[in-house]
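Quality-control log, excerpt.
Job 1 of 2 completed; input and output follow.
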Amino acid sequence: MAPETLDPLVFGHRLRHFRRLTGLTLEALGQTVGRPPSYLSQLENGHREPRLSTVNQLAGALGCRPADLLAATAPNRRAELEVALAHMQDDPRYQALRLAYLRPSARLDDVVLEHLVALFERVRELSLHPSAGGLGEAGERGARAANSAMRDEMRKRDNYFEEIERAASQALASIGYGGPGAVSERHLTDLAAYFGFTIARVQDLPASTRSISDLRHRVIYVPQRNLTGGMRTARSVIAQTLGRFALGHRDPADFEAYVRQRVEANYFAGALLAPERAVVRMLADAKAREDISVEDLNESFYISYEMAAHRLTNLITRHFDIPVHFTRSDPDGLLWKAYENDGVLFPSDTDGTIEGQPLCRWWSSRQAFESEDSYSLHYQYTETVAGTYWCATHLGVEQDRGDAVTVGTLSSAAHWFRGSDTSRQSVSRCPDPSCCRRPATEAVRQWEGVAWPSARDHSHFVSGLPTDTVVFSPHPGVDLTDVYSFLDRHSGGLGTT
């Protein structure tokens, strides 16, 4: 018999393919190999498996090698789809639907076949890996839903939270900050005192935390600068922690409250370190010169590039009516943060989740890693199914391969930005799988069935939250044993009541 790995459906399509190349009918081929046409028809339809002796006879008659008939891949995309459709209908999950058998006649065009096969493949993935579609543990569903709801609210508000801008402005006024320069470390110390805290820098902060606030002794513990990746990061950690107190946060009761508090604290930190009035003045001057840039905010206010990008999205639509989008993605192209009010399409899961989804290979955030100087700003126009967009992408250098932070806008608004004169252009047809997610046909023919890659594990959480528990913790991802041990060490026993 033929090898156990032989797929009769694939063999049948390859036999039909080579028979038609030679122009032979079933009758003519049958006469050559001494087999009735009905037997050959059963072979071509995948209803019978051939003996190796028959394969050798057929190959001799068709002028090809036996290996050509026994290859593991279908001869073309149409055949590949028909094989997939047949296997799909043999699957118990499909049969449970009690649908009539669908034969791929000539009247069933390729587009319909593509949709049917892709749809069932997604159903199959969800059944094998429920958490991939948001159907796993309640914790993961809650985190996904909370992130999606927060993005919807940010879009509706053009990512501008007036009440947080006001709280940051009042806090700065309370310590006498009048601008327009960067908020200093002394200002942050005074702000902590304004909220009744002192700041202590330590070397042994637990790895699962960014800061720890001792509410009994009114101390905010933050890591030493050498442990945070630089002064800018250290400043943002302090500002985010102060945001909790400025905004009156309490321990969250669910994922929705946790996500909201996280977004609000980050927003407060940005509004504190890059005050609205000063940023708007700088953006207005830059807009008059058609030279708006994230990097100017990054340098002028001594904040991270990502925070500067967030501040631009907070204020540019509200004050200048310019729509924008923002993404943060890793070197593999997986999306972890995003915001848009300019209509750009982000990759998403079936439930609307974007975290962990792969960006198009031709998008600026991924092309930046391929540029000759990957650590200079990467400017690019990308034609997409939703319109043409201009983007500026910055690659982090804190680690060997930092994440990509991208800010962009519609091509019609690009002239306001530095780098809009770039000649770099690309075309993305995603979510069409033929754009970049399906290997080239020739590569498939050459390597499918004889290549076995081993996937590298990704360390990211789907949404920045642990999702392995149904019960919500007000401190997700934090090792409380380490936290309490840390507080015991640093309070000198004063924490005991």
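Job 2 of 2 completed; input and output follow.
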Amino acid sequence: MPLFMDIHTIDGGVGRADAAGAHARDLEVQGKHDVRYLRYWVDEGEGKIFCLIDAPDAGAARTVHQEAHGLVADEIYEVSEGA
């Protein structure tokens, strides 16, 4: 399945605990859309969250975020893992 990296920008910054809560909700919803949220990274001061997703397509990844918590990504890219 393809890998995707998405980017969220949260005005005013974002806390690690908030990102962790949103990720936990993604994990609860992902199975019914054949998606796996693998990892996420947070830049608190810049209000950025980056998610690595194993999904059949970008739309499925967006659907999980929408259904889980409504924080859809501003950008999403199909990526390939390097060494």
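Post-run check on job 2. The chain has two helices and four strands.
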